């Protein structure tokens, strides 16, 4: 195959995905059934019908404070629940970087109803919280801190269904749940096979209410998922192939959404990219970026997860470039044209990626949130002792020595290649 024809074929393959009918609701099946497309919210009727058929007529609902109303989701959910005589209790206390306190509050709010399924409405925070609460309701003798510090090992949970309202975490199609433990200033992660949602909804019209800042943060999260999921020691062809598609979609459609938040075609493709990214790291797992960011936002919960990832991402990729430059180039090359993965490109990649991140709104480094180099030993201690962060570090493509970790945090402390 000639180089010219290979380039032409790659362009045709890209167009084949880009030209799908975004108004046709389709199913993605990967651990769960996810409905994708404009109007997918109307599939909630089918979900309720399926729950009633299983004699599950009491639901605990987890959301954030207000977006579930402003984005139009509640206008569909509430009448549908009443149509099927499904009793419900609403907990609307989920916050960014949800905590064990919130999980315990939700469990307490639901106890009188004794729900037999959970509905999470929102982005990663309500859905991750929903996964934890779905477990805790089956184990009344334990609280959320017990769960998140692995003081017991659950083996089942209530059925969880989700209505996803962002395009970053992929949690609507994966098994992961991240809930901070307030007293310990840690941000552990669960991963149980019974935590896949049964049904999920990805409707780009819902995401149109995201602010420019939220849009950037969640999309950077998706980029981190695939760059890590494609470069761990257990990455395989599936996680890498998904990562390459996600890099292309983000490069093409994030600028369009930032220019026009109501561009439903662009929102559709970013939702699809986010789901693919969730599948990628569900297979390939994660390493430095997420492990090191969990320490940061565990200590300072006001940091948006995606923003925290963006602050340290260039330094992580720089450290990993000697081992995984070709794979990273196949993903980041859509954002930074011309990358081949050659060792000499590491500095160029760092500079250009930092510029791109600032262009989409990730415009601070660690010093902008008060982090200091003299505190790095404490960050390292948390990395080594917070389950499952040591496991993530063990999967990194470059050995996670204290020196490498310190170097990544140091590089991420200030802007080096550009001025803020």
TrEMBL record:
InterPro entries: ADH_Fe/GldA (IPR001670), ADH_Fe_C (IPR056798), Alcohol_dehydrogenase_Fe (IPR039697)
Record domain Fe-containing alcohol dehydrogenase-like C-terminal: where: 216-410
Oxidoreductase among keywords: yes
Keyword terms, alphabetized: Oxidoreductase
Gene3D superfamilies: 3.40.50.1970, Dehydroquinate synthase-like - alpha domain
Pfam family, one: Fe-ADH
Residue spans crossing the bilayer: none
Domain Alcohol dehydrogenase iron-type/glycerol dehydrogenase GldA as annotated: residue spans: 35-204
Keyword Oxidoreductase: yes
Annotated PANTHER family: ALCOHOL DEHYDROGENASE (PTHR11496), ALCOHOL DEHYDROGENASE 4 (PTHR11496:SF102)
Recorded family membership: Belongs to the iron-containing alcohol dehydrogenase family.
Stated name of the protein: Long-chain primary alcohol dehydrogenase AdhA
Species the sequence originates in: Paratrimastix pyriformis
């Amino acid at each position: 195959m000639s180089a010219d024809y290979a380039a032409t074929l790659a362009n045709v393959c890209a167009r084949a995905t880009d030209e799908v009918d975004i108004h046709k609701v389709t199913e993605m099946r990967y651990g769960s059934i996810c409905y994708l497309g404009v109007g997918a919210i109307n599939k909630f009727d089918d979900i309720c019908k399926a729950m009633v058929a299983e004699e599950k007529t009491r639901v605990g609902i987890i959301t954030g404070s207000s977006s579930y109303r402003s984005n139009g989701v509640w206008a569909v959910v509430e009448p549908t629940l009443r149509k099927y005589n499904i009793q419900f209790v609403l907990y609307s206390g989920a916050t960014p970087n949800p905590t064990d306190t919130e999980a315990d509050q939700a469990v307490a709010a639901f106890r009188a109803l004794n729900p037999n399924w959970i509905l999470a409405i929102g982005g990663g925070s309500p859905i991750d919280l929903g996964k934890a609460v779905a477990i805790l309701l089956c184990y009344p003798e334990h609280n959320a801190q017990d769960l998140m510090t692995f003081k017991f090992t659950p083996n089942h949970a209530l059925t969880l269904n989700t209505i996803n309202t962002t395009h970053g975490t992929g949690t609507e199609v994966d098994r992961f749940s991240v809930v901070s433990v307030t007293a310990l200033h840690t941000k552990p992660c669960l991963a149980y096979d019974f935590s896949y949602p049964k049904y999920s909804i990805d409707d780009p019209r819902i995401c149109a209410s995201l602010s420019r800042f939220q849009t950037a943060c969640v999309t950077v999260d998706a980029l981190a998922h695939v760059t890590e999921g494609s470069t761990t020691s257990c990455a395989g062809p599936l996680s890498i192939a998904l990562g390459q598609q996600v890099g292309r979609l983000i490069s093409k459609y994030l600028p369009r959404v930032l220019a026009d938040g109501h561009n439903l075609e662009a929102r559709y493709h970013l939702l699809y990219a986010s789901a693919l990214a969730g599948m990628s790291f569900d297979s390939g797992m994660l390493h430095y970026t997420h492990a090191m960011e969990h320490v940061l936002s565990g200590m300072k919960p006001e940091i948006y997860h995606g923003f925290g990832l963006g602050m340290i991402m260039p330094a992580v990729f720089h450290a990993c470039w000697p081992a995984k430059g070709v794979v990273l180039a196949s993903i980041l090359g859509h954002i930074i044209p011309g990358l081949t993965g050659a060792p000499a490109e590491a500095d160029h990649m760092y500079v250009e990626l930092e510029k791109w991140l600032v262009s989409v709104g990730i415009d601070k480094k660690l010093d902008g949130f008060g982090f200091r180099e003299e505190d790095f030993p404490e960050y390292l201690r948390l990395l080594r002792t917070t389950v499952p962060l040591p496991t993530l570090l063990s999967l990194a493509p470059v050995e996670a020595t204290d020196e490498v970790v310190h170097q990544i945090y140091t590089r991420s402390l200030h802007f080096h290649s550009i001025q803020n």
